[in-house]
Design goal:
With about 375 residues, this protein is an alpha/beta fold. It is built from 15 helices and 13 strands. It folds into 3 domains: about 150 residues, HAD superfamily/HAD-like (Rossmann fold, 3-Layer(aba) Sandwich); about 80 residues; about 140 residues, 3-Layer(aba) Sandwich (Rossmann fold), CATH 3.40.50. About 45% of the residues lie in helices and about 15% in strands. Helix 9 links the parallel strand 6 and strand 7. The longest helix is centred in the first third of the chain and has 20 residues.
């Protein structure tokens, strides 16, 4: 991984939500939470936020953040009848002083090391127009060439455009750039779709996404040194301490739910994504208007077992064969391609004859799709190597 540039997320990567601002408000309303309990609750709230984004939210809508804060407050022990008042007080504090103000003391020295090695650095953040000031007040501004704030730019992660815009502004190629963030569906998926390398922050060491993970920015210099040693042959990939693979027996079925073509109706895709997640599958949702190439690229990068496409546009006889062809060209012919939509029975048979898996029509219970994928996965596990 030869790199010229490193781009960073801001919130919960460089600058963190400050428990010393929020906890006194919570304690005023009867919640006696420790900082340890606060960080555990924040982790759970952020997981819920990531799931909502995977289902199609962008991550900046007001109702998404209300969900995040309610989970955080409840996790810290705020009673249900106090939630509205606590939310009002915390919102006032955020508007007055901003809640994301805590910086790990080791972050600045790590950025200095990276700058000393010749890396060019900048910030890409989904924010409200104040993030550049926060970076400056935190004393981190000297390390960065610029800050891209989604509120100012008019485009937000995971849209690849904001990452590409940063690369163009710096004059670097995406494939020679790294993005460091804390939300997998926003930061990792968005940056990958723009062609950047990615690293995910995992402070508690409990995330299991298919991406290299580091506990904090302070670990980034050592991570990059290790990757460079691996590139030169010094550290075999199987011994890479940053990969942290899940035990094989604990690995969940990974499903990419894709919405190809110009069809803008995504309710069915979101419903099946939620059903798959409830069944214990790991689900990645691509969002609307995906090309076959984008779908297959995401399937390869995400190392999925199944691609499930929702096609309501009538283009199923074009889209399914093209995705199947690209999967085979990429050497991923062991990935199950399935899906559903308004597909005549004779077309279903023709697609299945080409190698597409079972297809589901309107009104099919979601449990049928769940059981079909489980059965397919069980058969694959029993198949001889």
């Amino acid at each position: 991984m030869d790199l010229d540039a490193i781009f960073f997320d801001a919130g919960n990567t460089l600058i963190f939500i400050n428990p010393r601002v929020i906890l006194p408000i919570l304690r005023e309303h009867g919640a006696e939470a420790s900082e340890e309990r606060f960080w555990e609750s924040e982790f759970q709230a952020r997981l819920a936020l990531a799931r909502l984004v995977e289902e199609g939210a962008t991550g900046t809508e007001d109702h998404i953040w209300r969900e995040y804060f309610v989970r955080l407050f409840v996790g810290c022990g705020v009673a249900a009848d106090r939630l509205e008042e606590v939310s009002r007080r915390v919102r006032q504090e955020h508007q007055r002083n901003h809640l994301w103000t805590w910086v790990d003391p080791a972050t600045g020295p790590a950025l200095a090391v990276l700058r000393g090695r010749g890396y060019r650095m900048a910030v890409i953040s989904n924010a409200d127009g104040r993030v550049e000031g926060l970076i400056r007040e935190a004393g981190l501004a000297p390390y960065f060439e610029f800050v891209l704030d989604s509120h100012v730019e008019g485009v937000e992660k995971p849209d690849p455009e904001i990452f590409l815009r940063a690369c163009r502004r710096m004059g670097v190629e995406p494939e020679r750039s790294l993005y460091v963030g804390d939300l997998y569906p926003v930061d990792v998926l968005g940056a990958r779709r723009a062609g950047l390398h990615t690293v995910l922050l995992d402070p508690l060491g409990r995330l299991d996404y298919p991406v290299d993970r580091i506990p904090n920015v302070a670990a980034l210099p050592d991570y990059l040194s290790g990757r460079e040693a691996g590139r030169r042959g010094g550290v075999p990939e199987k011994q890479n301490p940053w990969r942290q693979p899940m035990p094989e027996q604990a690995r969940k079925i990974r499903v990419l739910v894709a919405k190809p073509g110009l069809d803008g109706h995504d309710r069915g895709a979101k419903v099946i994504a939620a059903a798959f997640r409830d069944a214990g599958f790991e689900v990645i949702y691509t969002g609307l208007h995906q090309t076959p190439e984008m779908i297959v690229n995401a399937a390869i990068q995400e190392d999925v077992d199944v691609v499930a496409m929702s096609v309501l546009s009538g283009a199923h006889m074009t889209l399914f064969p093209r995705v199947l062809e690209l999967l085979r060209e990429a050497g991923a012919d062991d990935v199950l391609l399935t899906g559903g939509g308004i597909i005549p029975e004779e077309d279903m048979k023709a697609l299945q004859a080409m190698g597409v898996g079972r297809l589901f029509g309107p009104g099919t219970p979601t449990q049928e799709a769940v059981e079909y994928i489980r059965h397919w996965a069980a058969q694959r596990e029993r198949a001889p190597a």
